[in-house]
Amino acid sequence: MLKVEELTVEVDGKPVLRDINLEVPKGEVHVLFGPNGSGKSSLIMSILGFPAYRVVSGRILFKGQDITSLPINERVKLGLGVAFQNPPTIRGVKLREVLERLVSQGGRYSSLRELAETLNFPLDFMERDLNLGFSGGEMKKSEVIQILAQNPDFVILDEPDSGVDVENLQLIGKVIKKMIEGKSALLITHLGYILHYIDADEAHVILDGTIVCSGRPLKILTQILNEGYAWCRKCPKVRRERCER
Amino acid sequence: MVQEMPESKKRAVRAISKPAVYGPDLDINGYSRSGEEGYRCPLTELPEDVVERSLEVGVTPREEERSATYFQIDHSVIFSAVREMFKGKVEVLSTAEALQKYDWFKDYWWRIVPVDADKYTALAELKWDQGYFIRILEGEKVTLPLQACLFISTDNLNQNVHNVIIAEPDSEIQMITGCTVHRNVNRGLHVGVSEFYIKEGAKLTFTMIHDWSPRFDTRPRTGALIEEDGTFICNYICLKPVKSLQTYPVAYCKGANSRARFNSIIYGSSDSYIDVGAKIVLQNEGSRGEIINRAVGKGESTIYARGMLVGERANTKAHLECRGLLLSDKASIYAAPELLAKTNRTELSHEAAIGKISEEEVCYLMARGFSREEAEALIIRGFMDVDILGLPEELKKRIEKMIEATTERAL
């Protein structure tokens, strides 16, 4: 479904990703772990094609098509959908306008009310400026609602569980679980809360802009939570791979 | 017997060469004073080319959509009437008629705007071409907007109108004034003096839409006096090119708990020179003020967005917000917010920000399936947020359409 090959990316001339190889087959859910600043969000921005993330080498394939030089909206049309970690505030642009557009492009929901109810989201937020004065939880819900409206084949979720209280986490977790049924997904999580609700097939650890190890999500998460990323840095496998370069 | 020249005329004569504080200094003798001779006619019989242009500034020939209408072309009043169901609630006359009809009218003439403020106010006194007198009677809540159109149909004409608006105690109304020119008009000068009297507990929302031509100059001069518990909301919208436009309306919150609010949405394009300010003076306990500016600079336009809040009494509060969006490196926006506190018990604040379209916002919307052009249009349109104007649905929709057309043109 999604294949990233030998991807090296710069922002303002500074390398942020190097030689990334990642493949998410159809129907699988993969998780990205990594400390702050390791390159998780950079990988997502690169997959989406944000112009500031300049691909130096390598390529990105989606559904077999090379999308490395497509503009963001063309990638989205092919079936990529993303819930951002920190979406920007856009004054004067209503959430409703964005949702209506997404639904009209092939979403599966018939009404905004239905969408809002799924996540217990106040309907009057539809008429508010995008993310203006939204709380952390509201912002996450607004992002998930947009993905629901879009109904993409491949779902990217950047920390859907950060800054959300327990009750809302439960709700968001359940909605996401249902949303990605039968789809492929790439998920970033720091503390792994969302993994209580979602069965992931494979996890990858990013350190200093490159994937250093891959394996079973819960096993890797347990190690990270117990010993931190220092454990990854000490890992013989990781060290060997680095020595080879 | 030689009749003595009234005091206002004497002051005007002395000020006729006095340049304005802001804006390019114009040669006021460079324009024609002979406009087309107009005759009164029903709104429905206005020529199509006049209707077409007036619609673009929110003035409709459909009388049933408005409580009353005033229509002036060049120096002549073409139409002035109150609809049957609003008679006794609101009064509309030309200011010349009002001066003849009411002895007390002179108490409202040049009482807020000084006649000798500059050469333009002086010109409006010495070469005065009508304008409207609108009075909303005590306790009347007028449910449909009232409209006025100041139209110029002769090229290189100078039109000087003087308007007086009185909202009697506890009255309420929405007013829309459109100022525009015939599409054959290339240059000219419009001076518009407007004096607003908002009495105890009255609420007036005034929306002015300007649509000139690229070589046209305009100098509106506006003042408002707000009594106890009164509210004055003044919206100004200018989305089309103009040679030069300079205005700096002032609202005096004279009564306790009076409120004033100025909102402006400016879209500067080609080589327009636009200098728009607003000033609120908080003169009594509990008075509140707000100024919100949105300016978009495109082409080689120059925009000045000024604002001043003056807190003279305790327990007063006001805020000024000025945002600029630059779409071109050849355009410029100058934001000049000023605060003057004369007591330590007034709370004045301002925020000003100028920037270009945020790439982060564009990318976000593209990730929702919008093309880059669509995303930019959405952001510009959102920036010129009509919601700040506090308008009824019909007027809001009308202005939204104008802004949509503007953003489509922008890209």
Give a topology summary.
The complex is a heterodimer of chains A (245) and B (411).
Chain A: E1 2-11, E2 14-24, E3 29-33, H1 40-48, E4 54-62, E5 65-66, H2 72-78, E6 80-83, E7 90-94, H3 95-104, H4 112-118, E8 129-130, H5 136-150, E9 154-158, H6 166-179, E10 184-188, E11 202-207, E12 210-215, H7 217-227, H8 230-234, H9 236-244
Parallel strand pairs in A: 3-10, 3-11, 6-9, 9-10
Antiparallel strand pairs in A: 1-2, 1-4, 4-5, 7-8, 11-12
Helix pairs in contact in A: 3-5, 5-6
Chain B: H1 7-15, H2 48-55, E1 68-73, E2 76-82, E3 90-94, H3 95-101, H4 119-126, E4 132-136, E5 146-152, E6 157-167, E7 172-181, E8 187-198, E9 203-211, E10 215-226, E11 231-238, E12 244-247, E13 250-253, E14 259-268, E15 273-276, E16 279-282, E17 288-297, E18 302-311, E19 316-326, E20 332-341, E21 346-355, H5 359-366, H6 372-383, H7 393-410
Helix percentage of chain A: 25-40%
Give helix % range of chain B. 10-25%
Main beta sheet strand tally, sense and closure of chain A: 6 strands, mixed
**What characteristic shape of chain A results from the CA principal axes?**
globular
